[in-house]
Amino acid sequence: FALLPNAITSISSSNGCLAYNAASNSVGVTKCTDAANQAWVFDAISKRIKLPSANVCLVSNAASLGASPTVATCSSGALNQYFDNCDNVVSQNYIKLVTKRNTAVYEYYTGLYAGSIVDDLNHLFIYSQTYQTLQVMSNGQCLDAFPSGSGYGLHTHSCDGTNGNQKWVIDSANHKIKHATHYNLCLDVDPNSPINAAQVWTCYPNSDNQYITTVAY
Predict the structure, then answer these.
(1) Which pTM does this prediction carry?
(2) Phi/psi-derived region of residue 170, left when phi > 0, alpha when psi is between -120 and 50, beta in every other case
(3) pLDDT tens for residues 40-67?
(4) Which of 47, 51, 177, 185 is 20 to 30 A away from residue 156, measured at CA?
């Protein structure tokens, strides 16, 4: 396929365009007619391919190579709706932070929580070995452990490689995410938290709450 300003044309099909079928909520190739159901628009900011007339977005199937695309309600966090020009793609080592209880750490309105493992930007992180930062893809901010009263709070904040609150060490051998600045402080997920919040806590060698594995995405 080739993405034009207001259509997606088929390279293999002469005068064929990707069209949306509202009755079956699916897409297929039909003769190009400039109709509203063929007027796909690429949003360069959100990296979505949208069909304004139906308010849906194109969806890829990453689990099946060569599978036909589908459509769904546009969602800013859905990875399967993320498209970009191949020339703009930069290889990144994305990870998920998976706990011993098979939940995953995720960001929501700058807070950190643990819940079901979901395939979206809120659950994806990039670890910078240079700056020792953990950046979440949903808002582009970094995990930040800040002094609060007699302890520490945890949220995401604008990434700053010189900010000591944002420096972390991934101890893969012991399945811990340790703070590099604040002594003996670890990322911790308490299953008894009423809001499933992630936090930072004193590091303990055999704590299930602190058993976190970085899983490559």
Answers:
(1) 0.70
(2) beta
(3) 999 887 888 999 999 999 998 766 767 7
(4) 47
